[in-house]
Amino acid sequence: MAAEGPLGLRIPEQKQPSSADMFLLNPEKTNSWIADLPLANIGETSRRGRKAGVAFNRTTMPPKIREKVAEELR
Predict the structure, then answer these.
(1) pTM of whole model > 0.90?
(2) Would you state the pLDDT for residue 49?
(3) Among candidates 24, 6, 13, which has minimal Cα distance to 62?
């Protein structure tokens, strides 16, 4: 269930990352994951990006790491 934050935004429940999402806890691994995306296949790249975005929003991590990984994903 999503909680409502101080700005009235719905915040998804966060939990520890699954083994498939561990790259989100390390900005260097995130950068490597981005470099390995199949850019010639826009559909697959979009699916992987959306899946990573959902996992990123639902993964518990320290704020400094979240900031760095968000910058890499941007």
Answers:
(1) no
(2) 94
(3) 24
